[in-house]
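Tokens for chain A. Residues wanted.
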């Protein structure tokens, strides 16, 4: 199966995006510092950060295609949490989060949004994403309903708009390893949802 580039929005419906052309991906060598610079350039030239998600998907796809070391940089998940994270770049004032995360089999996240755009590439393992939609309700702060789901495989890449809501679960017997890059976190816009109590809390 060909690797997929996907987009998920606040509607909860995922869509397959036009794939990058192979000749746009190949760069030898393609250094991590160049990736960061090109991401920054794309964001600075964009009128709306969400509008440049196609360019950001291209850059992430280019990085994982040309930089083998990305495929080897991961840590074992901690037994207490079922996850482990390597921050690939951390500079005071740098507005982006760039990391490689590992999740144990059976690990499941809360239902959440990210409060900004994000692009995630699956490097190893299989991950089920369930997508939700927020339903305005004057009596409840966080009424959400499941809309769709998809199992992501190694090589798949998914991008999110700020209001996209999902939860993820590792399926299969091997850990999931992901490369991810997120826009600057706006904690006032990032929520964790309780589908039973219909509440939303900042996290």
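Reply:
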């Amino acid at each position: 199966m060909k690797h997929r580039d996907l987009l998920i929005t606040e509607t909860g419906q995922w869509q397959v995006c036009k794939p990058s052309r192979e000749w746009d991906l190949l760069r030898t060598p393609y250094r991590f510092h160049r990736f960061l610079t090109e991401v920054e350039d794309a964001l600075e030239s964009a009128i709306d950060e969400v509008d440049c998600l196609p360019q950001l998907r291209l850059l992430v796809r280019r990085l994982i295609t040309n930089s083998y070391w990305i495929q080897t940089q991961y840590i074992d998940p901690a037994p207490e949490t079922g996850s482990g994270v390597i921050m690939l770049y951390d500079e005071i004032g740098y507005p982006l989060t760039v990391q490689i995360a590992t999740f144990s089999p059976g690990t499941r996240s809360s239902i959440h949004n990210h409060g900004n755009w994000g692009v995630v590439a699956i490097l190893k393992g299989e991950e089920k994403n369930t997508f939700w939609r927020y339903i305005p309700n004057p009596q409840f702060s966080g009424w959400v309903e499941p809309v769709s789901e998809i199992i992501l495989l190694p090589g798949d890449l998914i991008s999110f708009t700020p209001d996209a809501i999902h939860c993820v679960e590792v399926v299969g017997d091997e850990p999931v390893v992901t490369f991810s890059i997120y826009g600057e976190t706006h904690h006032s816009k990032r929520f964790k949802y309780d589908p039973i109590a219909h509440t939303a809390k900042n996290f």
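The two ends are 36 Å apart (CA to CA). The chain is about 20% helix and 35% strand.
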